[in-house]
Amino acid sequence: MKSRLNNNITKYQTKAGYNIYKLPISTPFPVGKVNTYLIEGDGLTLIDTGPYSEKSFGQLLSKLQTLNLNPSDLSNIIITHGHMDHCGLLRLILEGSKAKVFVHKLDADKVSHFLQGYKQETKALSSLLLSSGLDKDKIDILAKAYEYGATFGQEAKVDYKVEEGDILTDLKLRVIHTPGHSDGSICLKLNNYLFSGDNVLENITPNPFAKTLSPYSGLKNFLNSMDKLLNLKDVKLTFPGHGKEVLNLRERIEEVIEHHNQRKEIILKTCQKGRSAYEIATSSGIFRKNLRQELFLAIIEVISHLEVLLEERRVKSSKKGGIVFYQAV
Asked: Which domains does the chain have, with CATH numbers?
């Protein structure tokens, strides 16, 4: 049973007796609001936090107060993955809470050593963009924009490093490791409900980070994760990290898989004459023209598809002047 409460809170009453509250929190990113979820069991479990900012923290506190709660009432906090819009507020919450924190072991350092990891990621990203054919001036601009994102994250403690199959809290939430968007991305299954993080969204296709940048990320890992979720036969409702709930998990996953298969074929056709990832991202018609801050995401997505095409031996790569070019075989 679903009901709307004050302060943009949605309440879901489950047959198992758990109350689930959806608490949307503002972000400064194009994706818009991030969904955090509060589940009432024997204790209170929060899934994801929102980004680090006074505005976001104020919204979270206000929504908790609407439910006659505050951070000190939280027993557990589970992070679906180590991106700042999902874990950035963790440190501020913990200043007023003794909640135990759960993060997948492959993303735990992204949370506990956020700034160090972010700097390393920015450096690796700049190097990859340079080899994609993007000129250095644009890379410097994008790197500064990317570094700005670091202001929305804070390092915070992690109590438990979780992995596939772990059962968490009194709710018996089952961890499903779904790498691709992030190395340590997870979904959480609660009876017939799935908390999908950024893996399955209602009308957005998640960006699979290039495997070149992170070994458990990339399109192949992401699609393997989608196949794993397809095996869940009893999910009646999926709670995503952004946007509306997903009513038909299988249908949405099949749409996402088909989307990536079609995109891969378009990229392959664009490679008939040797092209760089930057040229493909800006000339294939996949993305809108005049991309700005989103340009690096477009290039990374193209590279993630090229990685699969290389593995399938449908394209070959060569390097000239520090730039990698791809040619259909």
From this structure: 2-328 (3.60.15.10)
